Amino acid sequence: MGMSKHFAFTAAAAVVSIAYFGNAPAVNATVSSTTEQTAAAGLAEDALLTLEKSAYAAWKSKNASFWDTFLSENFVGWGTSGRLDRVSATKEYTGADCDINSYALSEAHVSPRGRQAALITYKITVDGSCGGQKIPTNSYAASVYIRDGSQWKATFHAQAAVVDPTAPVAKTVYEEAQGDGKAKRTAQDARTDILFAIERAVWEDWKDHDAKKLSALMAEDISFINIFGIYLANKAEGLKNWSGTGCDVRSVGITDALATTLSPTVGILTFKATADGTCFGQKVGPVWGSSIYVKYGDAWKWTFGINVPAHRQGAQTLRSAFCGRL
Questions:
Q1: Domain boundary assignment for the chain
Q2: Does the domain formed by 15-309 have CATH 3.30.1330.60?
Q3: For an engineered disulfide with 144, which of 140, 156, 174, 209 has Cβ 3.0 to 4.6 Å away?
């Protein structure tokens, strides 16, 4: 996965988030988390890695028809100008202007998300260019697969180029808002309202460096990929990172949120976030975020997330010294 000029991160767009979703079932559905996790625990890591590698092969060979059966029907994600649907994503993922010499996946981790979904995270190393510009060599990526009958289909993907968070930024170009330049209202539906409220609390607690409150909003088994391409593998690493003092943020905001679920107990929220303040002495820019939630009993818990900088198409390398949760 991650196989268009946007998935591969050209020098013009160092980090781009792509996300895929399934249908939204009833909001009040509840399933035992233990049962769900156990049922999905037998997922074969090799099988999902094979699927990921097949997507990279399709990108390298410019196989446009591959995406027709690889992507789930209810796809939604981020492109260079905002969210993508399945049709526009397929167009972006053909890699028509990319020349790829080689790619390699390593450091893979697979974990279940409910009975019918699985998350895979890994490091991707690419030698190639898109649009005549060299692709960053290393990125950390995440994909979610969901069962569709007898097949696994990609329903989420995002990746972040590995960069040095302390390196000076020569030029940073952020978009002021998504799409047409105007902030959009958060979708008005019950599932979005629920996950949006939790996500907003997570960002507020990050701003306040409150590890205790963050912990209460999260499951025990979590992971995270930040905009530097740094993979935080567990809750202890995440809380230590997010409650650090590298950022001085006065306020945060979330807009244009949209939630769709993969099952009655698994949901994904995409959104745009902003923070008024600095991290490591540099101004914080807007972020496109994606978070995966799982319902434990009656409570939704944050289990995985990835944040990438929002940007304009054609912008030069997008990096900002975000700290912690960013």
A1: 15-309
A2: no
A3: 156
Other CB atoms within 10 Å distance of the CB of residue 298: 7
Structure tokens at 117: 């979904």
d(CA 109, CA 91) in angstroms, rounded, equals 29
| Among the listed residues 186, 207, 201, 184, the one whose alpha carbon sits nearest the alpha carbon of residue 259 | 186
- DSSP per residue over 300-312, as a string? EEEEEEEEEE---
Give per-residue pLDDT as tens, 232-273.
999 999 998 888 777 889 999 999 998 877 888 999 898 999
Contact between residue 130 and residue 8 where contact means Cβ atoms under 8 Å apart = yes
Q: Is the Cβ–Cβ distance between 227 and 321 less than 8 Å?
A: no
Helices (runs of H) and strands (runs of E) counted in the chain: 7, 15
Asked whether 316 and 325 are in contact (CB, 8 A), the reply is no
pLDDT digit string, tens, across residues 113-142:
888 889 999 999 999 998 888 988 999 888
Least Cα distance to 323 among 227, 195, 222 occurs for 227
